[in-house]
Amino acid sequence: MEKLTAKEEEVLNFIWTLNRPCSPKQIGELYDAPRPHVNTIATSFQSLEKKGYLTHQSVGRGYLYSPVVKREDYGRRKLKGLVANFFAGSYLNVVNTFVRDSDLTREELEQLLEQLKEQE
């Protein structure tokens, strides 16, 4: 899949949040003021569809769009890219960063270890 711009990703997140077929106007209503113009959002919809992230169906004189890609699948791909680009491809480096720089607790680490053991 093609890489998304920040604006396309933002629109796609609103679509996933709405969790039903929607129009650019409906997504525009989810923005805080000042809202982007509906034509700007429609352009993002068209780009997302061209890149394979959305599909549409005709309804009356307009279209309703639905995601083709699940939020979880997109998140997995993004995470793999982050790990490859910023952590030398090592998930161990990611976990070390979480342990060192965040509030990851011992209990959470133990839960991760248990999940790894269950996968084996």
What does this structure look like?
The chain has 120 residues and is mostly helical. Helix 1 (6-18) packs across helix 3. A two-stranded antiparallel ribbon has the order 1-2. It has helices spanning 6-18, 24-28, 38-50, 71-86, 91-101, 106-119, and strands at residues 54-59, 62-67. The model has no long low-confidence stretch (mean pLDDT 94). It folds into two domains: 6-67, Arc Repressor Mutant, subunit A (Orthogonal Bundle), CATH 1.10.10; 71-119, no CATH class. It has six helices and two strands, in the order H-H-H-E-E-H-H-H.
Look at the structure and give the CATH class of the largest domain: Mainly Alpha
How much beta, percentage-wise? 5-15%
Oligomer: single chain
Q: What is the second-level CATH architecture of the largest domain?
A: Orthogonal Bundle
Which strand order does the major sheet show? 1-2
Rough outline: elongated
- Ranges where pLDDT stays below 50 over 5 or more residues in a row are none
Distance between the termini: 31 Å
Overall tally of structural domains: 2
**What is the assigned CATH homologous superfamily of the largest domain?**
Winged helix-like DNA-binding domain superfamily/Winged helix DNA-binding domain
Order of helices and strands: HHHEEHHH
The helical percent reads: 55-70%
- Strand count, sense and closure of the main sheet? 2 strands, antiparallel
Query: How many distinct beta strands?
Result: 2
Radius of gyration: 19 Å
Number of helices: 6
Overall pLDDT score? 94
